[in-house]
Amino acid sequence: MSTSERHAADSHDLIRVHGARENNLRDVSVELPKRRLTVFTGVSGSGKSSLVFATIAAESQRMINETYSTFVQGFMPTQARPDVDLLDGLTTAIIVDQERMGGDVRSTVGTATDVGALLRILFSRIGEPHVGSAKAFSFNVASISGSGAVTVEKGGRQIKERREFEIIGGACPRCEGRGNVSDFDLTALYDDSKSIVEGALTIPNYSVDGWYGRIFAGSGFFPGDKPISSFTKPQLDALLYKEPTRIKVDGVNVTFEGLIPRIEKSFLAKDREAMQPHIRAFVDRAIVFRTCPDCAGTRLSELARSSRIGGVNIADACAMQINDLAEWVRGLEGESAARGVAPLLASLRETLDSFVEIGLGYLSLDRPAGTLSGGEAQRTKMIRHLGSSLTDVTYVFDEPTIGLHPHDIARMNDLLLRLRDKGNTVLVVEHKPETIVIADHVVDLGPRAGTDGGQVVYEGTVAGLRSSGTLTGRHLDDRARIKESVRTPSGALEIRGADSHNLQGVDVDVPLGVLTVITGVAGSGKSSLIHGSVAGRDGVVVVDQGAIKGSRRSNPATYTGLLEPIRKAFAKANGVKPALFSANSEGACPNCNGAGVVYTDLAMMAGVATTCEVCEGRRFDSSVLEYRFGGRDISEVLAMPVAEAEKFFGAGEARTPAAHKILERLADVGLGYLTLGQPLTTLSGGERQRLKLAVNMGEKGRIYVLDEPTTGLHLADVEQLLALLDRLVDSGLSVIVIEHHQAVMAHADRIIDLGPGAGYDGGRVVFEGTPAELVADASTLTGQHLAAYVGG
């Protein structure tokens, strides 16, 4: 064969997708070049994630999982085959998404990456004095010891031997590795003027009629019919602190445990942000957290902190900014004591340098993982892939520029191109033009969202996209102008001496009655300032992108309270009970219990979800679907997009003012394409935030705080968001927005810019004033980029 002939193996250079129908995709067919950077664009809800994540990445991961034994598959998440005719040329897909990292209170940046493990090994090898293995430096391992007799079989005889064991862990014994301890306000746990049977316990789910109330009333360790104030010291001690003890209540064997250890296990073991609102309110009321006095918040035992390398212990190393830690590690490489761990130091240095390179040098390893933003979490996950030896992998990114200042986007673009240049296929779902323009290949979905989307409206080069006439093509070079006239503040919200995280005693007056935008590079202290000093005040409503708690049965109709007036309207029109029109109650299809699908567990093999044959996915009993309102049954109403439902409930015989008001707010925040019955688990971070905003718009708060509301918004939708923010301000509200998007900056009445850099190089107010003054000043990074944006 001549060298000019192509080898058969080189012909597989395309990922072919034919007939994709996941969610709203309408028989989509695309051919994506391998080892190139492909960007997927289109308005929110056009089908980008359905094509990239739910079709290409899902099938790749499902096929890889099938290569494992059925035993191993039993421990892996199960995935159904995507609804697609043909998928060909797939490679291993690695998804780097924006899901927040770790809800566990013990999870930190160090534990969530390889750095913590490498640092623990380093200290166990060359730390002085030597205190033990790597476990001795882990705050997730407690020190325990024990001894006793064990029975072993030797030569066919059973012999008893005495054994002793000891595990040296690094967890501080006082706080158990959490870094803080809790003091209880007993007045928030019970009303001591009442008895247990009179409802003295004021803890959520501890009502008299509930199971816990019955256990405490019938325990026998203290009188259930006398006021708690009359308890003797031993009785009060049993109520609060008694160790788990088996008792019998109403003929049932149960375990009794004191209130405080029970609360610590059921409430305090969870991350505060992951709690339900009423539980969080109770915890905030009843429990005061303070830094552990024994370990000073380092989480580590005195023994772990006693071992040092060059005068630095592991707690000091974890508290350093990562860029400083990288310099410290670099300084160790020439020392004779470190020669035996040279490969370990090289690996540690490379990983730390990757953090700095990716723009996260301002973090520290002891930073709780739950406090990272979605963008920071995504970039932290990228770290392990940058140094990977794998090639010919498909990397899938979900808006990697989220949380990035325009100054940092160029750095992210370089990282994406580096992954591509190593021979990988990089698929990116993105809205920012700065990242779209570096693509080798663009797939634009649309033309609109929901049922009006799901089609490929353009496929080709960036130059072709500009001249294509699609919504993305028309808006790709959009530039917002600086607002000619700005509103005058009606007052100010004073912040004095703010010092959380990297803030350096910030004093600033946040103007009220106007649109205020808080800007600055990632890590400059924006979220620390607003969430630390503004959130929590009376009248302040915070709308972030955190996950919405709910099951796969939850949907926009249930979450917003919209289903309540709809059910009542159906019930009144048909003369029946409202409960019939709930798929979670009496109206549920008996075969699938209102889920719409039947889940079949195949034990070791992947489970299968099939559409219910009885209700055909409509979730309701057939008798319920005979009742109509405005000519539609309840399943047809839940299948409507918000925009259609708004017209349906706004006029005519189906007019329902209570439902229409909620639907108007959903349309206002740009969610007109969502169907009322779409599971909440399928929403993106930006969609979740806008759904929360729609709900909170009905609250009585006078100050709204929005954290990056442009997340997940198409260029064309940013105009609609700005119009919504204007309406909120014009109605008398104060709106504070943490944002990186230059169009929002240009539209602000006031800008507060933090910086000048990130970490300890930030934490200061470097500019306060109007957008025009910021552009004219041009001394800050934000000012320079905004000037280039409005001038470009």
Features:
792 residues, 6-stranded mixed beta sheet, 27 strands, 32% helix, repeat, DNA-binding, nucleotide-binding, UvrABC system protein A
What do these coordinates show?
32% of the residues lie in helices and 19% in strands. The chain is built from 28 helices and 27 strands. A six-stranded mixed beta sheet has the order 5-14-15-3-16-17, sandwiched between helices. A six-stranded mixed beta sheet has the order 21-24-25-20-26-27, sandwiched between helices. Helix 4 packs antiparallel against helix 12 and helix 23 packs across helix 24 (685-696). It is found in: Cytoplasm.
Structural class: alpha/beta
Shape: globular
Major sheet description: 6 strands, mixed
Report the uncertain regions.
none
Compute the separation of the termini in Å. Answer: 54 Å
Q: What percent of residues adopt helix (DSSP H or I)?
A: 25-40%
How many H/I helices?
Answer: 28
Task: Determine the strand fraction and express it as a percent band.
Answer: 15-25%
Radius of gyration: 29 Å
Strand order of the largest sheet: 5-14-15-3-16-17
Overall pLDDT: 87
What's the β-strand tally? Answer: 27
InterPro entries: ABC_transporter-like_ATP-bd (IPR003439), ABC_transporter-like_CS (IPR017871), P-loop_NTPase (IPR027417)
Domain ABC transporter: 480-781
Protein name: UvrABC system protein A
Keywords: ATP-binding, Cytoplasm, DNA damage, DNA excision, DNA repair, DNA-binding, Excision nuclease, Nucleotide-binding, Repeat
